[in-house]
């Protein structure tokens, strides 16, 4: 709240009814006028050299001569304010405003005291007295509402000022602070929708609304708002979100790729929307594999994404559709991008390699992962499975027996361990132990 007050003193003695004293002689009136002027100009002289105490004494003499003179009260307020006697300063400014409520500078003096004492509640009362003199004081009122935590009033006033005077950096900063608290977002959503109806060509209102919907995970409303934006401002980056979906529905891959690339490269568009766009294009490529290269390029936009491992998610997408070769490609990419071995990625990768019967890779990778995750029995299982398929039964037996100790309350995995141990002993020619482990597997299956 930056303020400055330039006070022009205007003082008229002649014609003031307060000077007309009952049954006073003209000579006496003249003497009083001269005394008043002497005391008043003495106060100005002393104030100029910062002798506020002497200035106050001179003004008190003036006040005895003219107790209803608003200017004297105002000057007393200024001297008390300068000497940091805030309570007395406020009293005299207030008395001046009561004598002459048409002079805004008297209220400015009260506001100066409110501001100096950080009495923001009282400052709100004072600033509302000043607004009729000059609507620009509404800017100060916005800050006062923020300082007193009256965010609902602040938001309403910010929206009013944005509409009547245009946006300002300070107000936009206040607005972000308010909207970080979820309970005020609904009111702002209503306001933004109203602004869009009034001014459909103002892109910032759409973007602010999209931001709020995105923050609330209301993706459908994000897309609906983007469609409205696309109709009104087709050149907007956000409009590409709607156009992208339109191109996919029309099976126009070339235009969809172009819209997607604009979206993914944009610094304005939320990451959640980018992930959704990528996912929709991924589904599109299932039926249109000629765009696989464009998909690979699109994925590179997410190389620095710390929240979502995009390669892993795409691998899981192909995994669910049993497109094992593609799943493997993306799981391997996920591993390359990761600085540490990821448990989930590697378990899925081993399953995909098993489905494609690449048992040499399964055995080698699983054995290496046992060293990284020595308490994870799944890696012992995949290593044993791989070695059995490669007819390396001794290796299979040894690693499966080590891994069995880590199987806890996981019946399906325990069944698989027993089956693979049976296979290993069968390969080693030990039919007795083969039957033992197969029997254990059958008993577990019956539970």
From TrEMBL:
Keyword Signal recorded: yes
Pfam families assigned: TPR_19, TPR_8
PROSITE patterns: TPR (PS50005)
TPR repeats: 70-103
N-terminal signal peptide: 1-22
InterPro entries, per database record: TPR-like_helical_dom_sf, TPR_rpt
Keywords carried by this UniProt record: Signal, TPR repeat
Domain of life according to the entry: Bacteria
UniProt name for this protein: Tetratricopeptide repeat protein
């Amino acid at each position: 709240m930056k303020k400055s007050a330039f006070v022009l003193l205007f003082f008229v003695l002649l014609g003031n009814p307060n000077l007309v004293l009952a049954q006073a002689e003209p000579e006496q009136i003249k003497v009083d006028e001269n005394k008043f002027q002497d005391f008043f100009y003495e106060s100005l002289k002393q104030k100029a050299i910062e002798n506020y105490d002497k200035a106050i004494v001179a003004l008190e003499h003036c006040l005895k001569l003219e107790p209803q003179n608003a200017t004297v009260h105002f000057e007393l307020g200024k001297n008390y304010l300068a000497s940091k006697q805030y309570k007395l300063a406020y009293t005299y400014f207030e008395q001046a405003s009561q004598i002459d409520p048409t002079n805004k500078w008297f209220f400015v003096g009260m506001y100066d005291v409110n501001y100096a004492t950080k009495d923001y509640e009282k400052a709100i009362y004072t600033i509302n007295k000043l607004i009729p003199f000059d609507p620009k004081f509404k800017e100060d009122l916005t800050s006062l509402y923020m300082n007193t935590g009256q965010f609902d009033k602040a938001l309403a006033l910010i929206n009013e000022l944005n509409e009547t005077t245009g946006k300002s950096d300070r107000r936009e900063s206040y607005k972000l602070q308010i909207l970080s608290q979820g309970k005020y977002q609904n009111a702002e959503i209503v306001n933004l929708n109203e602004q869009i109806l009034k001014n459909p060509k103002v892109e910032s209102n759409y973007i602010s609304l999209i931001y709020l919907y995105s923050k609330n995970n209301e993706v459908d409303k994000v897309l609906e708002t983007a469609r409205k934006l696309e109709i009104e401002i087709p050149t907007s980056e956000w409009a590409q979100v709607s156009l992208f979906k339109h191109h996919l529905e029309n099976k126009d891959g070339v235009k969809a790729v172009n819209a997607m690339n604009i979206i993914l490269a944009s610094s304005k568009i939320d990451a959640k929307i980018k992930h959704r766009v990528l996912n929709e294009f991924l589904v599109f490529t299932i039926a249109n594999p000629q765009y696989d290269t464009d998909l690979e390029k699109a994925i590179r936009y997410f190389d620095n994404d710390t929240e979502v491992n995009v390669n892993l998610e795409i691998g899981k997408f192909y995994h669910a559709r049993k497109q094992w070769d593609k799943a493997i490609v993306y799981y391997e990419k996920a591993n390359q991008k990761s600085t540490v071995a990821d448990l989930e990625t590697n378990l899925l990768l081993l399953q995909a390699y098993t489905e494609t019967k690449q048992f040499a890779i399964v055995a080698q990778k699983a054995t290496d992962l046992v060293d990284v995750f020595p308490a994870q029995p799944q890696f012992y299982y995949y290593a044993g499975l791989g070695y059995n398929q490669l007819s390396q039964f001794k290796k299979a037996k040894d690693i499966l027996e080590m891994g069995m100790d880590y199987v806890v309350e996981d019946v399906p995995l325990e069944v698989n361990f027993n089956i693979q141990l049976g296979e290993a002993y069968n390969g080693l020619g030990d039919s007795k132990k083969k039957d033992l482990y197969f029997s254990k597997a059958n008993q577990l299956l019956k539970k």
